[in-house]
């Protein structure tokens, strides 16, 4: 069974959760929230196990943790809440002192589903605990939020991501630093990128384009942009790299700050472009990138929308 010792950074959060579980002072309900891939599910699952075991060794599967499932990819329905939670909440734990309901992707509950669970978490049996896991807290009814202890799970530092990638994969430090810049604190995202040959190939192509974009003829920029945006599956990632690159150029131009630069491996080109472009040119291009992002989300053909970036 994984333990809190495997959690990278976030030690203050871990200590508080560990003490609550071991001392049987866990609240009735929790919401673990944060961006994709930061480890909120991993931390929440360990916490659920510790509530049941109180940190003591246990043999065999833990039957008193109930994971709420949903049939549709984009919805947790009111019927699923009623059948899996409301209808079973009065059944006492199988073996442990407590039983814990874990609701992953809890933001998929619509208003009806949230209202269905509300009365249960308002007046639950003493042996019931509820753990919601979601990307954000704003999607929940205020009456739900008022009954949960909110635990925001932040991302980890770039240094931690780089160290983990170089230890756990075959990446060298330069490749790991590139992925850390794009993952932005999400270790899960970083690991997915590290295992993807497609990502690594595309990343080098995008960075290669950005480093020399201002030196290229229009026809070369045009053909490269069309190639980069030809695969709709990768356009979101490509656009994010564009935004992060020109954000770095802007940050350096405004104060020669290298501490808050994402692409530190490319600082020489960042510096050069900060001197080459005017503020207006940088901000106009960032505006175009955001326009392309919006157009693609509105189902405009990606390579057509991307012509704004030539």
CATH topology of the largest domain: Rossmann fold
Instruction: Identify the strand order in the major beta sheet.
Output: 2-3-4-1-5
Rg over CA atoms: 23 Å
Low-confidence stretches: none
**Total beta strands:** 5
Which H/E pattern describes the elements?
HEHEHEHEHEHHHHHHHHH
According to CATH, the homologous superfamily of the largest domain is P-loop containing nucleotide triphosphate hydrolases
Overall form: elongated
* Class by alpha and beta content: alpha/beta
What is the class of the largest domain in the CATH system?
Alpha Beta
What share of the residues lie within helices? 40-55%
- Domain count, please report it: 2
Q: How many helices in DSSP terms?
A: 14
pLDDT average, as an integer? 89
CA(first)-CA(last) distance? 52 Å
* Beta-strand residue fraction: 5-15%
- Main sheet summary: 5 strands, parallel
CATH arch. level architecture of the largest domain: 3-Layer(aba) Sandwich
């Amino acid at each position: 069974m994984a333990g809190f010792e495997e959690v990278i950074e976030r030690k203050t959060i871990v200590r508080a959760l560990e003490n609550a579980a071991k001392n049987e002072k866990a609240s009735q309900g929790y919401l673990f929230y944060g961006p994709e891939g930061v480890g909120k599910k991993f931390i929440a699952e360990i916490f659920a196990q510790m509530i049941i075991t109180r940190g003591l060794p246990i043999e065999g599967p833990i039957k008193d943790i109930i994971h709420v499932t949903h049939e549709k990819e984009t919805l947790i329905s009111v019927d699923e809440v009623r059948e899996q939670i409301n209808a079973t909440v009065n059944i006492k734990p199988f073996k442990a002192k407590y039983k814990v309901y874990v609701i992953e992707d809890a933001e998929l509950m619509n208003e009806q589903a949230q209202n269905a669970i509300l009365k249960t978490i308002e007046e639950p049996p003493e042996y019931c605990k509820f753990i919601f896991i979601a990307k954000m807290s704003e999607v929940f009814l205020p009456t739900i939020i008022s009954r949960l202890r909110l635990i925001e799970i932040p991302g980890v530092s770039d240094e931690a991501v780089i160290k983990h990638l170089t230890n756990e994969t075959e990446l060298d430090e330069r490749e790991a630093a590139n992925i850390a810049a794009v993952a932005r604190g999400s270790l899960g995202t970083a690991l997915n990128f590290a295992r993807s040959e497609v990502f690594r190939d595309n990343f080098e192509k995008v960075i290669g384009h950005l480093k020399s974009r201002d030196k290229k003829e229009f026809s070369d920029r045009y053909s490269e942009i069309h190639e980069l945006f030809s695969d709709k599956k990768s356009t979101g990632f490509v656009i994010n790299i564009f935004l992060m690159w020109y954000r770095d150029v802007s940050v350096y131009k405004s104060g020669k700050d290298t501490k808050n630069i994402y692409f530190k491996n490319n600082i020489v080109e960042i510096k050069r472009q900060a001197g080459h472009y005017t503020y207006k040119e940088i901000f106009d291009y960032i505006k175009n990138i955001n326009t392309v992002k919006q157009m693609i989300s509105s189902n405009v053909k990606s390579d057509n929308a991307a012509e704004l970036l030539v």
